[in-house]
Amino acid sequence: MRLRSTRIPRDAVHHPVFARFYARVSVTADLRGGIAGLREELLSGVSGRVIEIGAGNGLNFAHYPGSVSEVVAIEPERRLRQLAARAGFRAEVPVDVVPGTAEALPVKSEAFDAAVASLVLCTVRDLPRALSEIKRVLRPGGELRFFEHTLAPGRALATTQRVVDRTVWPLLFGGCHTARDTIAAIESAGFELGVYRRLRIPEKGVQLPTTPCVLGVARRSMAVE
């Protein structure tokens, strides 16, 4: 598959301290926090050519089923991209890790059967534009698989999320915005929402701004747009 000629700055996203922190914490969360099982659920049954948005350090790669013919993994942060490339070599499906941003995906339109967004839509600078780009690169009827932080349904935690989003949270955690209403944003982008469920991570104990999550699937309409 030929990538678009869109020129991507080498460091379109630069969070070196957070990248190192995330690379360690994410592995622990997968092993001890049950995140690996959620990745397995997220990717179950996905097939064909897949684009992964914000691949991070590549923890999803081990969970892609054999029905996937190719994964093009977009990651803008240099250190995370390097780690993802190493994970790609170990994957059982073909993985190509490339630089790029969610708001300007360097691939052709309608080139993919599925897109995967895993704990990344909270960090993109322009969520509507990123979702529009995902929609552009999916074939009609293509799936968007998502596992994301989202706005809490309860007023108290939602208020906390909005407060921290306006203060230090994005600065400390790689641009993460915890108060985004992910489901509403996906629907507003024109996707047809499928089955999804709300999660709390962790399920018990102290509730963090990142505790409310949502996991599910949406589709690009088959209709001509």
Automatic annotation (TrEMBL):
| Record keywords, A-Z | Ubiquinone
Any Pfam family from its record, for instance, is Methyltransf_11
Q: Which Gene3D superfamilies match?
A: Vaccinia Virus protein VP39 (3.40.50.150)
**Protein name (database record):** Ubiquinone/menaquinone biosynthesis C-methylase UbiE
Superkingdom in the source lineage: Bacteria
Span-the-membrane segments of this chain are none
Give all residue intervals belonging to the Methyltransferase type domain: 52-145
